[in-house]
Amino acid sequence: MFSKACEYGIKATIFIAINSSENRRVSPKEISEEIDSPQAFTAKILQALVRNNIVKSVRGAYGGFEIEKDKIATTKLSQIVYAIDGDGIYKGCGLGLHTCDENHPCPVHDKFKVIRDELKHMLENTSLEQLALDIKSGVAFLKV
């Protein structure tokens, strides 16, 4: 459903949020190891997250990536997805057809539209804070 870059972006942002809530910045190397992503690929993803004001990059000896504590609570999963993949997930055809809309639907158009709408609702109503708290409490996991 999400691109590999988006999956890594979500995991990276959650990892950064967990550490930021404990007043700790994380290095690109730590992030790539935690999310099991190649370092160069992780760096590109982090650049997109910085450009979209989701994470903050701090240079220097005590530098790294962080998220301001108040932004952890207000950042929604939809913002991360948009920063990496854009809004195509809300518009694409379930079968990948170039022309698929209400006037010219594919065979799964109506069913896929419901799923797409539910996904949009979930992404827009799930905060980074919720995800980080689930991981910190052991309810959910970033890796096995």
Automatic annotation (TrEMBL):
One of its GO terms (cellular component) is cytosol. GO terms for molecular function: DNA-binding transcription factor activity. It holds the Pfam family Rrf2. PANTHER family: TRANSCRIPTIONAL REGULATOR, WINGED HELIX-TURN-HELIX TRANSCRIPTIONAL REGULATOR, RRF2 FAMILY. This is Rrf2 family protein. It comes from Winogradskyella thalassocola.
